[in-house]
């Protein structure tokens, strides 16, 4: 499998970092960006780096588009002759669906939409995948590629915008929680580095606890919330100040931008 990433920005480089660390060969990747200076480290590793998108499409059998939504349609139109039916088009672009992409293309190109997150760089992404009807047969090969970056789930395309908010923006929401925990830890007397270590490991442990046991979060919360203890005292104070409500409202507000 030869993969090109058109518009290799933060998300594209996160994917590439994960693929390379998983042992995929650098020579099987071609990445583009208008200004290639920030991609020089990948060139040194053997990845082909260019600002020529047509060459990137011709190189690959899997073409990943990581462009901004307002650039995607124009770029597809300019590359239309190169996007032949033997290619697999993978879009990382939010808010533009497979029907809209298909309408731009002259050839019968299989189209898959993928929404990973920047955890892909450390092989811990949660990647949501969907395909139009004629591309369902390609899902297994795309899942196998993106499993190198972490966990994957196949969803209906109607949920793709929600996946962008919950799965991709969710990284920022989670990191804001970690930052707040760090600030609290510093106030309690820990150094910044100590607070970061404790907060990040606690979040990692909590997420693995849920993932590996299959337990509902509330089950594990109950296990550590003793009567009149410090845990329930802290939880109740957070809820009195709207912790869960603020988080839910924030996620829903982000989704409304797609409506």
Observed structural traits:
51% helix, Rossmann fold, 259 residues, alpha/beta
Describe this structure in words.
The chain is 51% helix and 14% strand. It has 259 residues and is of the alpha/beta class. It has an 8-stranded mixed beta sheet, with helices on both faces. It is elongated, with a radius of gyration of 21 Å. The mean pLDDT is 97.
What's the architecture of the largest domain, going by CATH? 3-Layer(aba) Sandwich
Distance between the termini: 36 Å
Total beta strands: 8
Protein structure class = alpha/beta
Q: Tell me, what's the shape?
A: elongated
CATH topology of the largest domain: Rossmann fold
Assign the CATH class of the largest domain.
Alpha Beta
For the biggest β-sheet, the strand order reads 3-2-1-4-5-6-7-8
What is Rg? 21 Å
Q: Biggest β-sheet: count, sense, barrel?
A: 8 strands, mixed
Uncertain runs are none
Number of domains: 2
CATH superfamily membership of the largest domain, which one? NAD(P)-binding Rossmann-like Domain
Q: Which band does the percent of strand residues land in?
A: 5-15%
Helicity range of the residues? 40-55%
Task: Note the topology.
Blueprint: E1 3-6, H1 10-21, E2 29-32, H2 40-45, E3 48-50, H3 53-59, E4 62-65, H4 69-78, E5 88-91, H5 98-104, E6 111-115, E7 125-131, H6 139-146, E8 150-154, H7 160-187, H8 192-213, H9 217-224, H10 230-240, H11 243-256
Parallel strand pairs: 1-2, 1-4, 2-3, 4-5, 5-6, 7-8
Antiparallel strand pairs: 6-7
Helix pairs in contact: 7-8, 7-11
